[in-house]
Amino acid sequence: MATTVDTEAGAVSFRPGNDVPWADLDLVFGERGDPASCHCQWLKTFDRTFTDMPREERTRRFRAEVGCDDPDARETTGVVAYRDGEPVGWVAVESRPAFVRLRKTRVAWAGRDEDRTDEGVWAIPCFVVRKEYRRQGISHALVVGAVEHARQHGARAVEGYPMQFAAGKEDVWGELFVGPRSAFVAAGFRQVTHPTVRRYVMRLELR
After folding, report:
1. Could you state, in order of their start, the residue ranges of all structural domains in the chain?
2. For residue 142, what pLDDT is reported?
3. Which CATH code, of 3.40.50.12780, 2.40.10.10, 3.40.630.30, 3.30.1330.30, is assigned to 4-205?
4. pLDDT (tens digit, 9 = 90+) per residue, 2-58?
5. CB 201 within 8 A of CB 159
């Protein structure tokens, strides 16, 4: 995976999750806060299952799904971004049905009528950017890297479910884990629906 994106703070390159050391991904997720607690399992489970699952089990499942340190792994999930050799961010990207919670998320399907189990459509539902690298174009770069990863694995289309806050409003509750709308627009995605004041469904057709 050779994609490189120029950001205001330098070039960002990408590696699929199975092609990076666990220590790099662990550094991106950190030891505190929502990313470290969730490890992308909220999207892979339903409410009671997620709530009852110990944090250590979420981490174990995530590590198994990513398959770090195994470049020959047949399956993986997500892409890690690097700048100057330093891991700076992560984006979840996989065939849409893998994110089981998306199947029942009303805002993702409002005004739409299509097969929710279509494996040819991939989803970009979650971002993690290290605090010291935020507001530097990393999210946009991650979208580009995720699209390239999906393309190389046969995706027909890629979707995202970003947020956009009103001018002057800030992300108080961490809702921007889904990514900012501007990052998808910059990567060529088009708006499919606008189900709530702040939520958008964006899509890029690949073939």
Report:
1. 4-205
2. 96
3. 3.40.630.30
4. 578 888 778 999 999 999 999 999 999 998 889 999 999 999 998 889 999 999 999
5. yes
pLDDT tens digits along 68-107: 988 888 788 999 999 999 999 999 999 999 999 998 888 8
Which is nearest to 144 in space by CA: 124, 120, 118, 164? 124
Whether the pTM exceeds 0.90: the reply is: yes
Indicate the residue type of 109.
Answer: W
